[in-house]
Amino acid sequence: MNRDRARQIVLAARPNGRPSLTDFRLEEADLPMPGFGQILLRVQYLSLDPYMRGRMDDRKSYAEPLQLGDVMIGQAVAQVIASNRPGYSVGDIVLAQTGWRSHALSDGTGLRKLDPATAPVTTALGVLGMPGFTAYAGLRLIGKPKAGETVAVAAASGPVGSLVGQLAKIAGARAVGIAGGSQKCDHVKNELRFDAAVDHRSADFPARLAAVCPNGIDVYFENVGGAVWQAVLPLLNNFACVPVCGLIAQYSGVGPNDGIDQLPATMREILSKSLTLRGFIYSEFVEQHYSEFLREVGALIANGGIRYREDIVDGLERAPEAFIAMLEGRNFGKALVRVSA
Amino acid sequence: MNRDRARQIVLAARPNGRPSLTDFRLEEADLPMPGFGQILLRVQYLSLDPYMRGRMDDRKSYAEPLQLGDVMIGQAVAQVIASNRPGYSVGDIVLAQTGWRSHALSDGTGLRKLDPATAPVTTALGVLGMPGFTAYAGLRLIGKPKAGETVAVAAASGPVGSLVGQLAKIAGARAVGIAGGSQKCDHVKNELRFDAAVDHRSADFPARLAAVCPNGIDVYFENVGGAVWQAVLPLLNNFACVPVCGLIAQYSGVGPNDGIDQLPATMREILSKSLTLRGFIYSEFVEQHYSEFLREVGALIANGGIRYREDIVDGLERAPEAFIAMLEGRNFGKALVRVSA
């Protein structure tokens, strides 16, 4: 195993708005040796997720910001390649918080063993992982659509949005997806079986969205913010619920600044339509609901009742470009980096 | 009774921002005669409430807008002065949707008889009426503060805010009131027995508010919006709840427009702190909860456990100026017009 060198990607500079490649730096080092009670992991797949953008800023969100020189955080599927710890054998596959690394030491804290026979291991980073559970928690535990109601979700071809719509259908609701470009919209409608899909890049997007929501919107699963929110707002029905799980359109602090304060209009709609906006992070619900999620969605994955799509790039060194592409909506499915075979 | 003339105040023009006296017109007419099954009411007290501002605009909110020439809407305490309807006798006191009138005909629809022996009849327009029930519903059924938590409310000397804080105290929470001017703040702290009161007109208002909320804010009862919201937002704790019952600071569409879009910051806080914003209108809760409210708060009024204050002006013709004063925060207590003795 010592033929390998360990590689990692660190935060080289804080982005000003959109991240660029120079905000990241690839570093190499000798492979670490597992000490007493430790195991050495070789990362197979690294997950790229929008929340990572927030951690690059020097601003406390629900977690502490990264410091310059810190390894970028992230979850990965990894293989045990050396073990000094009972219960872990070489060859075991685990879900781990390795960060953007090729190899990582662990004392077992926070690891979860994966069984490749149950589901492809990459699903633990997507539809059966944090993004999938985020969709499940936001829709089932907050949005709670009733049969016949309309559920709308943006980034509908992504790992969260795609599950939101499919779970909405299972609940008997209409699912309306919003995605960027006709290819993604086709996928959302034909492959993911949403009732409708609308391209947010089309010039008349607000009118198109209204046209496919003839009875308004009862649950809007918010994961983008920005212009999509402005188009959704007038379509929300009385007592509509908005689980707020992400705001990718505003993470980089850029967007149309036309000097208009949009807050009063949003507050007015909250008041006059008795809306509920509820921010959430999946971790709030893990203890009580993660096992039921794994059981239910795991079975649906196995029998084809739920579909998912992955967008995999090869090589840890390509993580920065893939991450930037994802923030700009240029991925098509759950963004993953294949770090080793 | 025919010595009287009937008077009413109609919407003469739609306000552009703040209403002015010329947006209203006083009209006189002969007293109407009650027909078969009708009663004639003489208004004693007219209630002035912020929601009326919204109805003056040509924009659908939760109710239809007024048309030019329509009598201004409003609730009143009135006395039966002629009756052709079984069950109503001359001298009966009722709560009625008369609008801004000196006299009104009614077929009994929507009337509620008041017993002056139980509580002063004006309380049916304030602490035991729609404003009081709004406070009760928003705090008890949405905000749900726990003992030891901090509840903040603006317009704290007004009919809604004053009850919000007093109910918070009864729930074992800390009550922080926000009001305009030292006289109102003194009243909120000393008479209404809030834990703290902060003057939103003070230059360092955000810092003062932070100083009296050392453990942050768990429930913010939103009835003003605008600059107060901006000061509250950074103080909200994780999982804080914000019942949104009014936005008086933005009803007239005027305010600091410094070209900054405040929506992204609010959405970011909703997300990163798992906040709940819930708009509501009291009517949603009337059927299930109004009797318990009357019983509970009625008893507290009777035994002095809840205090209230009224700001009464004399004469229907002064309703427009009193209404404008209330929108600008120049009232001190529940705004009422004494229309007849």
General description of the model:
In chain A, helix 2 crosses helix 3 and helix 5 packs across helix 6. The two termini of chain A are 14 Å apart. By secondary structure, chain A is of the alpha/beta class. Chain A contains 10 helices and 15 strands. In chain A, the strands form 3 sheets. In chain A, strands 3, 4, 5, 6, 7, 14 and 15 form a 7-stranded mixed β-sheet that branches. The first copy, chain A, has a 6-stranded parallel β-sheet with strand order 10-9-8-11-12-13, sandwiched between helices. In chain A, strands 1-2 form a two-stranded antiparallel ribbon. In chain A, 29% of the residues lie in helices and 24% in strands. The first copy, chain A, folds into 2 domains: 6-123 and 310-338, Quinone Oxidoreductase, Chain A, domain 1; 130-279, 3-Layer(aba) Sandwich (Rossmann fold).
